[in-house]
């Protein structure tokens, strides 16, 4: 009885051992190490459309997915405060222009005539004062007139000479018009006002958002009627003629990814292989994935970012599509 029980135990042990061996052999042949998969994705150059001035979205001329050409108007912003500043700048320019024209034209004819008449009046007064002094001086020399009377006449004569010179100077100044410095200052004020108008006009032009290059509208952020701030992105434009694929490659596979090398990748969405040329390879840094070569760890394998461009244009390749390389 005891011998039979021992035989049963041994039989069960050997049966289990045989099952384990068979499963191990099957697993070795069927579950062997498969190929390493390096997966990447397609990317394209994108630029953001934004405005220098804050405003409210008045109208969109495009929708997501639309193709655009460089210079196409994409949207219009409403900025009433900018328009008010433009009106102020234009009014300041008109005022500066008027002052400049006044400086160039010189004194008004009425003012010039008045200055001339004052000079003629002073000349007449000087002539009378001179004659009066000469008569008084002769009488003084003849002993008829006192010295005091002669001095009074002389003082009057000298005063009229000063008055005539002053009137002549006023007339000359009126005839010559504004000074050279005043004219230069007036001209500078005009240029300054023109600069202010040009500056505000540039802000007005920023309310019309245009495409900087050909592409496709990939994303629009605000809605019509929403306020957007200075420099806020309005939409993204993808340049589909400038595409590449990006892979994160562990450094033990980098020998096949040297810059300039050609590689092949399978694009599942297109169900075809694509020939690529490596253009960029750079370290992803300490934040990227590391893998230990041994559990005890002698050194770690870093991950590198590899970018490759299609050798030929790939029809229907879109940003975000996966690409697979088997190693």
Keywords:
Elongation Factor Tu (Ef-tu), domain 3, alpha+beta, 4-stranded antiparallel β-sheet, Efflux RND transporter periplasmic adaptor subunit, transmembrane, 8-stranded antiparallel β-sheet, 3 domains, transmembrane helix, OB fold (Dihydrolipoamide Acetyltransferase, E2P), 14 strands, single chain, 327 residues, 5 helices
How would you describe this protein?
It comes from Bacteroides mediterraneensis. This protein has about 325 residues and is of the alpha+beta class. It has three domains: about 35-45 and about 240-325, Elongation Factor Tu (Ef-tu), domain 3, CATH 2.40.30; about 45-80 and about 205-235, OB fold (Dihydrolipoamide Acetyltransferase, E2P) (Beta Barrel), CATH 2.40.50; about 85-200. Helix content is about 45%, strand content about 30%. Helix 2 (about 80-105) packs antiparallel against helix 5 and helix 3 runs antiparallel to helix 4. The protein is rod-shaped and about 185 Å long. The model is unreliable at about 290-295 (pLDDT under 50).
